[in-house]
Specification:
GO terms for molecular function: GTP binding. This protein is an alpha/beta fold. Among the domains are: 7-17 and 29-96, 3-Layer(aba) Sandwich (Rossmann fold); 106-114 and 139-175, no CATH class. The protein contains four helices and seven strands. It has helices at residues 45-54, 115-126, 151-157, 181-194, and strands spanning 8-10, 32-38, 66-73, 76-83, 102-108, 135-141, 168-172. A seven-stranded mixed sheet has the order 1-3-4-2-5-6-7, sandwiched between helices. The radius of gyration is 15 Å and the shape is globular.
Length: 197
């Protein structure tokens, strides 16, 4: 549920779809951050993006390439890049790594069969030189589905306790119900502000 006391004002921007690498894009303004939303296909990345931007669930199709939207929240203008998670697209993620301040890694908590793949992709991201200074927010998504792992179980499955020298946090979320998303964004905005980003 979205708390009406939150300082959130969605701003509609053009949705861009592209299949090739782009140079980094910088927004104009006092406080801004470039955020990548990564994770396997069908984790709920695009649903989360539009839930954060317009405050409701929007019908989506699997992302081929990327979606980019601006989300204004807690006096920060987030430029949020939602990258497709299909196996054939993942090698191109690195094209979007430069100038990224944070990664939101979305995990389908109900898809226990692919948790190992989610872990491998997550730790590969952590090894990327261009993301060494990025903070990491993990959304243990789809908590509304039967059999979904809780945040402690996802922490164990992804070996999050092995993360060193990096700020990170995990939140249980349901993009469909809007639960946990803004708590995660609160942590992210506070963390980025404390780092002077």
């Amino acid at each position: 549920m979205v708390n009406s006391d939150r300082k959130w004002s969605p701003r509609v921007s053009e949705t861009v779809r592209h299949r090739s690498c782009l140079a980094s894009y910088r927004l104009f303004g006092d406080k801004e951050a470039r955020i990548l939303v990564l994770g396997l296909d069908n984790a709920g990345k695009t649903t989360i993006l539009y839930r954060l931007q317009v405050g409701e669930v929007v019908a989506t199709i699997p992302t081929v390439g990327f979606n980019v939207e601006t989300v204004q929240y807690n006096n920060i203008k987030f430029q949020v890049w939602d990258l497709g998670g299909q196996t054939s697209i993942r090698p191109y993620w690195r094209c979007y790594f430069p100038n990224t301040q944070a990664v939101i890694y979305v995990v389908d908590s109900s898809d226990t069969d692919r948790m190992g793949t989610a872990k491998e992709e997550f730790h590969a991201i952590l090894e990327e030189e261009e993301l060494k200074d990025a903070v990491v927010l993990i959304y243990a998504n789809k908590q509304d589905l039967p059999g979904a792992l809780d945040d402690a179980s996802v922490t164990e499955a992804l070996n999050l306790h092995k993360i060193k020298n990096r700020q990170w946090a995990i939140f249980k979320t349901s993009a469909v119900k809007g639960e946990g998303l803004f708590e995660g964004l609160d942590w992210l905005s506070d963390t980025l502000k404390s780092r002077g980003r």
